[in-house]
Design brief:
87 residues; transmembrane helix; 4 helices; single chain; mainly alpha; NADH:ubiquinone oxidoreductase
Length: 87
């Protein structure tokens, strides 16, 4: 669980969201640039969640899509998970 919560993608998405929230508190108007910032943040969060789901599925021995960044590393992730369970 620790590797998911402190992953660089999730930390980056959270800090980006905090920056966008801070910009809402100021008196700046909501422009198309702000809307694109929020859209970009939402896409980043969706990609982080997808990566976490793929890593979890691969470590449990389930199949994952070939376009996943962890495709081809399923055996390694399963061995790491089995080694942690024995410890």
């Amino acid at each position: 669980m620790r590797k998911y919560l402190f992953g660089t993608g999730l930390v980056t998405a959270i800090s980006g969201g905090l920056t966008l929230l801070r910009s809402l508190r100021e008196d700046a108007p909501f422009t198309w640039r702000t809307a694109l910032g929020w859209l970009s943040w939402a896409i980043s969060v969706a990609l982080v969640i997808g990566a976490i789901v793929d890593v979890r599925r691969a470590s449990k021995g389930r199949t994952i899509d070939p376009d996943s960044p962890v495709h081809g590393q399923e055996d390694k992730l399963m061995k790491d998970r089995a080694r942690r369970k024995r410890s």
